[in-house]
């Protein structure tokens, strides 16, 4: 009898182990990324891949909910308002922890925000605070010390924020990486190694980043058991691998090694009737950047007629129909459609401002030839830099053909680099023309127009216009309490950027066509803002 009981117990133990192993496998989700993560430091991040990772491992005072609305996160409650709404007092959750067990404090926010506006930090998106948080503009301009920023830890769990003016979009801003906390003691201990590998990183968000450094093509998001809301984090692990070729992605998907993949071009029509197929639109604005010069030096692209010729010489409709076919639509402005609306009339921003730079090969040729005459040349060779995904390669070849066909004397040399190298070329302004874009951080035109302020760390084009700066900064500050005047300022700013100055070559508003296993649930992808994996799960 004793022997029988021991055998039974042993068998049951083996079954428990098998069930546990099966459960672990069921809770592992496999997804793809378009490129390597260059880094996950919220202060210096400057690209969509980094911000996508940052959104999983960090968390600010608010996090977007499943519907894309700001919901309380590190903040325990809505703030106490003083001084006519210009002073906000936040209480930090008592159970907010870093993944190493230390408490998330108000000082973590104060430290992080002051780093963001410190010119020495070379923070990519310090201007997010410009004209919004008190003294941020003066600090960014080197006229004040970062310690004078309008943020202060009153005690371990109480944070005071002083604004220049009450800002309707401030809660949305607080969901973005620029406003996430950082632990000063940990960062100073790590030094230059901080956030360059998973060994030199702590998290306060739903997941920890593991098995990663800046060169790896695979990594894992592992459930953070110190996270305050861990009960709602269903996935034990999300395994990510970089896939740049759609054929490869399909192979991995059909063999069960990926739970979701993106599709484009011919693959969309091939799989559009598949039960796993889905299509939606995004707020991603795709364009060509043109380097007009920097540090006092100018390029041939500083000529307005040259830029206008380039901007009007690409058949964008053919591009979205032939190469993409994923729900992307032609974009003749910088701010995308169907997301941002007039506060009074509710009319779409894109519809109101109309087409600012449209495809017109006849006019493009006239502008081009006028520009060549003005710079004293009969021909021009321009390098076009882009990432190395199969789609980007197809796009650059298409644009090369279009530009050379419609603009006599133009030669386009395609420079294909890794996605990471493309980000570096953009930030360092080491390019002539570059295929880029912006997804936006929050649902307001400012998130697109703020990038092109003079000397903004997000500009990298050489474009500078005093009236543009005045309008955009006004929309952030002095006009923030007059919604209609603010809206008019943003409309006018976009006209200056494109209609008057052709600072960019707008191409299309990104769509998203994808295959997703029915077992994958709550993959939250917003039209604007980084994906949110917090609630993602895999049905058994």
From TrEMBL:
Main location (coarse class): membrane
UniProt-listed PROSITE patterns: SBP_BACTERIAL_5
Domain Solute-binding protein family: 74-458
Subcellular location(s) per record: Cell membrane
MF term (GO), any: peptide transmembrane transporter activity
The keyword Transcription regulation appears for this protein: no
Keywords: Peptide transport, Protein transport, Signal, Transport
Keyword Signal among record annotations: yes
Membrane topology: Lipid-anchor
A Gene Ontology BP annotation from the UniProt entry: peptide transport
Cellular component, GO annotation: ATP-binding cassette (ABC) transporter complex; outer membrane-bounded periplasmic space
CDD domains membership: PBP2_OppA (cd08504)
Record-stated family: Belongs to the bacterial solute-binding protein 5 family.
PANTHER family assigned: PERIPLASMIC BINDING COMPONENT OF ABC TRANSPORTER, PERIPLASMIC OLIGOPEPTIDE-BINDING PROTEIN-RELATED
Protein name: Peptide ABC transporter substrate-binding protein
Organism: Listeria weihenstephanensis
